[in-house]
Amino acid sequence: MISAIGLDNVLAFRALRLDARALTLLCGTNSAGKSSVLHSLALLRQSQLAGMLSSGLLLNGSLVTLGTGRDILHSEFADLNGDGSVVLRVSLEDDAGGINAWTAAYVSDADTLELLGAAPQGRSGGLFEPGFQYLKADRIVPAVTFPKSHEEVTVRRSLGPKGEHSANFLRVHGEAPVTNQRTEHPDAAGRSLSEQTNAWLRELSRETLLDVEDVGGTDLVRLVFRRAGSDVNTEPQRATNVGFGLTYALPIIVGCLSAGSGSLILVENPEAHLHPRGQAIVGRLCALAAAGGAQVVVETHSDHVLNATRLTVKRGELAAEEVLLHFLSRSPGVLQPTLDTLEVTPEGMIGAWPKGFFDEMDRALGELLE
């Protein structure tokens, strides 16, 4: 498991050391550096997938498109004209005390950066293992069909950065049992991934059933939704007629249910397109995945996701010491974001609330009640 992430001269950070636990929530104002943390991890993963992590960093690939060296260099060096006079570093600490660091020479116009020294050979959590998931904020939208990919779904066990392989993942792995007992829904018809996925989807939309159909003669699959009432099941509905929320949340549900012990899941904005109750449900599922041995890093703007995490701790389903909250913000005229790290007590409480940390409702209510 990754215990800390370090960034030097990378994107939003001149220097950062960010502690990580089984469940790490990244919160804060817009453009304060939350995505920089996830993009840096994705940068390492896509460089490894491209077969070049032993020698360099691939800035534009299957997971992130970061531009050139000039684009990812911390803005303190905005006037830097020469190349090679500064280095960029991404480092990972593991729970055994090991440190892996990838240090690259800055080249302003290059979309690959050469590593300085030998590449690390130690542990890096689940970052480079099959089953790693990075689910971006701009996930799949409802569509008539979705792609098949044997390499992504069978070899890498990947849902794709947009969750575009979620439907095919269910087609291939739908009958396999969910191995993380913490994420098993008590009302599911069984322990299979498909049955568990349907049970969690019904938490978002009552009486909804999902199925995956193979489109014969093509490299495509189709998502089919039905309304299952007490008396009758409705005719199949294509995903485009059901709304954004279910399709948008599907990769998160499948990712959490399929995550085994030691897996790493990065999720941006799990709350997108969901009713507040749905936001709390996906927040709870992320917390339960972490309770069962996966490592989950979530970027969120939702107080419902935050409170679902706190309630999961209060109910004794996730140990308080397995949760860490980070609040990132920017002060005027300061290039380095401010980092506040917050602990959750076993009662689900948070000691100090920094200004701007999910306090908008209190501020608005205070003004209304004046």
List keywords for this structure.
alpha/beta; four-stranded antiparallel beta sheet; globular; 370 residues; 26% helix; single chain; six-stranded mixed beta sheet
Secondary structure elements and pairings:
Blueprint: E1 2-10, E2 13-19, E3 23-28, H1 34-49, E4 56-58, H2 69-72, E5 87-94, E6 99-105, E7 112-114, E8 133-135, E9 146-147, H3 150-155, H4 166-173, H5 193-204, E10 208-215, E11 220-227, E12 237-238, H6 244-258, E13 264-268, H7 276-291, E14 295-299, H8 303-314, E15 323-329, E16 338-342, H9 360-368
Parallel strand pairs: 3-14, 3-15, 8-13, 13-14
Antiparallel strand pairs: 1-2, 1-5, 4-7, 5-6, 9-11, 10-11, 11-12, 15-16
Helix pairs in contact: 5-6, 6-7, 7-8
Structural class designation: alpha/beta
**Largest sheet: number of strands, sense, barrel closure:** 6 strands, mixed
Quote the average pLDDT.
Answer: 91
Relative helix content = 25-40%
Residue stretches low in confidence (pLDDT < 50, at least 5 long) are none
SSE string, helix = H, strand = E? EEEHEHEEEEEHHHEEEHEHEHEEH
Strand order of the largest sheet: 8-13-14-3-15-16
Radius of gyration (CA) equals 21 Å
Distance between the termini: 48 Å
Taken from the alpha-carbon principal axes, the silhouette is globular
Number of strands: 16
Quaternary status: single chain
Residue fraction in strands: 15-25%
Number of helices: 9
